[in-house]
Amino acid sequence: MDHTSNPPGERIAPERTGRAAAVIALCAVLGAALAAVAAGLTWWAEDFADPLTGPVTITASGSSVVPELVPVALVALAGLGAALATHGVLRRIVGAVLVLGGALIAVRCAVAWGSAPASLVQDLPRPADPVGVPRLSPLGPLLGIAGGVLVAAAGTMIVTGRGARRMSSRYEAPGSVDTATRPERPGPVAGRTTVGDQSTEDWWRAMDAGSDPTEGPEAGPDSAPGDQ
């Protein structure tokens, strides 16, 4: 019996890789969903006194304050699909893109939390006097920051290779798996075809020696016709 096994460093527990792949998928999908929801919420509002129409309220949604929210959400979903279908350097590049995208929207949302956008004034149909100070709705920026952190976390796990085997192996064709990661199976040596307990090389040697290799185990390369 062949007791050959992979080195400990190459042995990957299926349960561990399965959990890592599930965490990556959850972070990417949930992060993309939070970013998309944050883009549709109202983040800032400000009241103005229009000399012609009277009081008017101008609002700014997440998509106008941080335009990258929806694109990064789409990139996160596309990146998850790419991580499922690739491995090696390409997979790490996908992870790096997710890290950068998640970090971008997280920082942009944090900055938008502290200052009102210029669009509150730019969206006025005509010049008007502000009434009070701009009002922040914190839910939108919070969701945007959380979404960015989750997308960046998914990218970090992809870059570090967690869940790589479980994710990409579902899309690999049979025979494309690296043979170094498979346990070796006992079998005939390459270039030798065995028949019974003898190889073809033993048969040729026996016939060169003048014996019949089909007569039995006593016939072999050292047998001579006079010995039969």
Identify the notable features of this structure and list them briefly.
228 residues, alpha+beta, Butyryl-CoA Dehydrogenase, subunit A, domain 3, 2 domains, 3-stranded antiparallel beta sheet, two-stranded antiparallel sheet, disordered N terminus, disordered C terminus
Describe the protein:
The chain is of the alpha+beta class and 228 residues long. The chain folds into two domains: 162 residues, Up-down Bundle (Butyryl-CoA Dehydrogenase, subunit A, domain 3), CATH 1.20.140; 34 residues, no CATH class. Helix content is 50%, strand content 13%. The chain is built from eight helices and five strands, in the order H-E-E-H-H-H-H-E-H-H-E-E-H. The strands form two sheets. Strands 2-1-3 form a three-stranded antiparallel β-sheet. A hairpin with a 2-residue loop joins strand 4 and strand 5. Helix 3 packs antiparallel against helix 4 and helix 3 packs parallel to helix 6.
Summed up, the helix count is 8
Strand order, main sheet: write it out: 2-1-3
Total strands: the figure is 5
- The CATH architecture name of the largest domain reads Up-down Bundle
Provide the residue-averaged pLDDT.
Answer: 77
Using the CA coordinates, give the radius of gyration: 34 Å
Whole-number count of domains: 2
Give the CATH topology of the largest domain: Butyryl-CoA Dehydrogenase, subunit A, domain 3
Ranges with pLDDT <50 over ≥5 residues? 1-12, 168-194, 218-228
| Secondary-structure-derived class | alpha+beta
Strand content: 5-15%
CATH C-level label of the largest domain: Mainly Alpha
The proportion of residues forming helix, as a percent range, comes to 40-55%
Order of helices and strands: HEEHHHHEHHEEH
